Amino acid sequence: MAYPDYPVPVDEAQRLRELERYGVVDQPSDPHFERLVELASSIFAMPYVAISLVEANRQWFLASRGLNVRQTPRPMAFCAHAIASKGVLVVPDALNDERFSTNPLVSGEPHVRFYAGAPLTSPAGHNLGTLCVLDQKPHLPTATQIHQLELLGELVMRPAGSGHVAGHWRTGGGPGPGRRQAPVPVVV
């Protein structure tokens, strides 16, 4: 099945190098990220939520809820579109959006109709992935909901102590290999 190409960010080479330096792709899920996914699912009452990292040829889920896969090809990824923008990408009804209407994730399982993804922006300004919420029904989120998604995305990337992403990323002066810092408590 054919569907339109995804936009490639202008900083793609730097973005991919930075994502690789973080060293979290293909690592086991982490309780901190799982809690953020659970929180997003609860706040937005969405059955599908993911922290998605977009590589050159695929998107990989660092943590997810409701999805039965850990990755998808990048051409199928809504998040590949979201990382090319500066704000939250909202797709109220994917069936009525020419970028996504023929996407296998829309026409087949899980039958995505709604998508909203907040870019996960590194301290260097590169969008490495998204925190996204999805549903099988169309939605039109409020400005408050969009802002809440942005805030949750910032929590994914929030430094804790001297490390990035709540001390769970491998780079940036974090706790080092094999050592984990306790996540900073999230008060909502």
Lay out the secondary structure.
Blueprint: H1 12-22, H2 31-44, E1 48-54, E2 58-65, E3 71-73, H3 78-82, E4 89-91, H4 104-107, E5 114-121, E6 127-135, H5 143-157
Antiparallel strand pairs: 1-2, 1-6, 2-3, 4-5, 5-6
Helix pairs in contact: 2-5
Task: Give the strand order of the largest sheet, numbering strands 1, 2, ... along the chain.
Answer: 3-2-1-6-5-4
The H-level CATH homologous superfamily, spelled out, is GAF domain
Strand content: 15-25%
What's the end-to-end separation, in Å?
42 Å
Q: Report the mean per-residue pLDDT as an integer.
A: 85
Highest-level CATH class: Alpha Beta
Structural domain count: 1
Q: How many distinct helices? A: 5
The SSE order reads: HHEEEHEHEEH
Task: Please give the number of β-strands.
Answer: 6
**Mind summarizing the main beta sheet?**
6 strands, antiparallel
